[in-house]
Amino acid sequence: MRIAVLAGDGIGPEIAAAAREVLDAVGDFSYEEHLVGGASIDEHGVALTDKVLAACKSADAVLLGAVGGPKWDTTDPDQPRPEQGLLGLRKGLGLFANLRPVRPSAALVDASPLRADVIAGTDLLVVRELTGGIYFGEKTRTETTASDECLYSSEEIERIARVAFEVAGRRSGRVTSVDKANVLETSRLWRETVAALAMDYPEVELDHMLVDNAAMQLVANPSRFDVILTENMFGDILSDEAAMLTGSLGMLPSASLGGDGPGVFEPVHGSAPDIAGQGVANPLATFLSVAMLLRDGLGMESEASRVESAVEAALATGLRTADLATGADGEREAGTAEITRAVLAALAP
Fold it and tell me: Which terminus of the chain has a lower count of CB atoms within 10 Å, N or C?
């Protein structure tokens, strides 16, 4: 199996290297390293080159670290930005569905900002539309005005909704479609299209929720959700909010799927340039992304389960990276290398 590794910026190279160790512990893979994001801007002047995109298309899966950092921050629309690499990958590979599971670890209950009784039983999946909406719409800018078009077609909505309904059928059978149908025409089309499609999935229960209420319910009663289906920008915001149920963005993996080619698997967190090179980055979201790569990208279910169990086992020993540490009895702060060794030890036959 050939895996394209796009380590990216900041802590990206550190967590991507650790992830390769985990992959090597459960299978036989070959890797191709490529630049993306700020690293690609520095080398090539663009966040994603055609050559790298072609290499990703020919791989069996793509493992991404993280991109971005203040070095490349700009409000000049003519200057390249690292995030353009992500958008280019999604568009170029036809990845219209982003899956972000949120299942707090029993070992990290104290790390969550919410009470244990609030997050108890939480096991949800955010299914986010990834290639439409305001992020990809036409943009205009003058000295004093700016606009971003939010555009969706019924075909785009239907294909992401099918993903949500099919996944829900393998889970608890509930889809919450999130929109802003009281204000936005795109959301009204979204709601109508999703409701019509639901007729094809009578075994799945569908309800609709406005995005502001969904944001509130995620912190007030997260266990009410099974599958959250939503458009691009709402999904971006809600999934980051949901990540904090686990105690840290450093625990949330993701998979971007949809086309005939490979999927892209990456942690939800950013590049954290303030801690890059210090050996303290949390690699666990990347390891859990590896599990999704194995399961959803390569069909290696048993290996994926082994990686997830190894992450739980490492946390059960009390090891915590700085972002997860609460000072509770039995905890011991660990860096990237030590917690990687603990996961590898748990994977050892």
Answer: C
